[in-house]
Design a protein that fits this description.
33% of the residues lie in helices and 16% in strands. By secondary structure, it is an alpha/beta fold. It folds into two domains: 43-98, DNA polymerase, domain 1; 104-392, TIM Barrel (Alpha-Beta Barrel), CATH 3.20.20.70.
Length: 393
């Protein structure tokens, strides 16, 4: 996280760039980007030592912290008032000290016969964020937000239009996961009892812009209970629009999460227009870093590519993309062309089906693995790039 951003009074902490210097990328800030104070400290935000110290303040011995961790990570439970293995006199205090309410459901939209659920959440300061649960026959994926809004300013994206309000805390990020895991565990999602199996950081925000909290959340999602929710790191996807220092840091962590890079264009000329961050880190720098991630993690990198009619979806674009990827060798990337979901009042529209097909065919012929990404949740505005946190009446 950049100190110069943190020390600049009217800027939120973005963690991406110092901003303001020649050539630096600056986050696009929302109208209400001013700092709003920090979210209440939650069990998930505390180190083990901090938890023990807090428990001590409440007159609780160390082993009580382990009990709380078992409830939180093992049973997705924060209702400390009802923890029957906990001293009755201390339950309310423990609930308040460790499990403040960080996210409150505002609305819930359901599609695909109850198997896609988009939830709008209000945070402690009134900020709105969203998460989307998608249940499939063999897996259940939750798409989560890591920032309020997004500062990357991609012109075709609803979230980008909002600008960045602030980073979310690890607790706020994790609470989206806990609530969804509990709903699956309790059989509240169509299809009966189940298990939340996959997490994608593709909701609101640029995860690398909030690296510290995102990484803390990744660790707590993937660790086995009572240290975490026990969702394999291999089933977690961290996406980025191409913040190269973030990709490098993630490579060095050695956690086998999948990396997804939102490329959206095969050349700098076009990408400069679609993804402003490209002016800071160009396609060569981004692809180099992504390929290094593949080499270090042995996990194929997802290349996300929103197909926009007449802009980046023609044969020449597919050919250039194939060439750029094949430059690094075979089979290291998986391209996910995504039909763009047009946002209201936008000049960017979805590709024609025949152009989508042609794009895929060209990639396949060049030996690139590519599958048209599922745009589940489209009828509730829940596909990627559309999480604009609109409060419904
Ligand atoms: S496409 Fe991704 S990085 Fe770009 S503005 Fe939207 S959410 Fe941010």
């Amino acid at each position: 996280m950049s100190d110069s951003v943190n020390s600049t009074k009217d800027l939120p902490e973005t963690g991406i760039t110092p901003g303001g210097t020649t050539g630096a990328f600056r986050d696009v800030l929302s109208k209400d980007h001013a700092r709003r104070g920090k979210p209440p400290l939650h069990f998930a935000d505390m180190t083990e030592d901090e938890r023990i110290a807090k428990a001590k303040d409440l007159g609780l011995p160390k082993f009580r912290v382990k009990q709380l961790a078992n409830h939180y990570y093992g049973h997705f439970d924060v209702a400390a008032e009802e923890f029957s293995d906990f001293p009755a006199a201390k339950r309310a205090e423990a609930a308040e000290a460790f499990f403040p309410t960080l996210i409150t459901e505002v609305t819930r939209q359901v599609a695909d016969e109850g198997t896609t659920i988009k939830t709008l959440w209000r945070l402690f300061d009134g900020s709105l964020i969203e998460s989307v649960l998608m249940r499939y026959p063999t897996r259940t994926t939750l798409c989560i937000s890591s920032q309020v809004g997004c500062g990357m300013g991609c012109p075709f994206c609803a979230t980008g239009q909002l600008g960045l309000t602030r980073n979310m805390s690890a607790g706020e990020i994790l609470e989206q996961v806990r609530v969804a895991a509990k709903a699956m565990h309790d059989g509240e999602v169509a299809g009966g009892l189940g298990r939340l199996s996959n997490i994608v950081f593709m909701g609101m925000g640029e995860p690398m812009g909030n690296y510290k909290s995102v990484l803390s959340a990744v660790r707590q999602i993937s660790a086995m209970p009572p240290e975490g929710f026990g969702i394999s790191a291999r089933n977690i996807t961290v996406s980025t629009v191409g913040v190269v220092p973030g990709i490098k840091k993630l490579t060095a962590e050695g956690i086998p999460v999948r990396l997804a890079v939102s490329l959206h264009a095969p050349s700098d000329e076009l990408r400069d227009e679609l993804v402003p961050m490209n002016k800071r880190f160009n396609t060569t720098q981004v692809l180099d870093a992504a390929h290094d991630y593949y080499l270090a993690s042995k996990r194929r990198v997802s290349i996300e590519y929103a197909l926009m009619r007449g802009i980046n979806d023609q044969a020449e674009h597919a050919k250039l993309l194939a060439k750029r990827l094949n430059h690094y060798g075979d089979n290291w990337a998986h391209v996910n062309p995504i039909p763009l979901n047009p946002i209201e009042g936008s000049k960017w529209t979805a590709s024609k089906p025949e152009d989508e097909q042609q794009f895929l065919d060209i990639l396949h012929k060049a030996g690139i693995t590519a599958t048209l990404r599922d745009t589940r949740g489209q009828d509730i505005d829940g596909a990627c790039g559309q999480l604009a946190a609109k409060e419904q009446d």
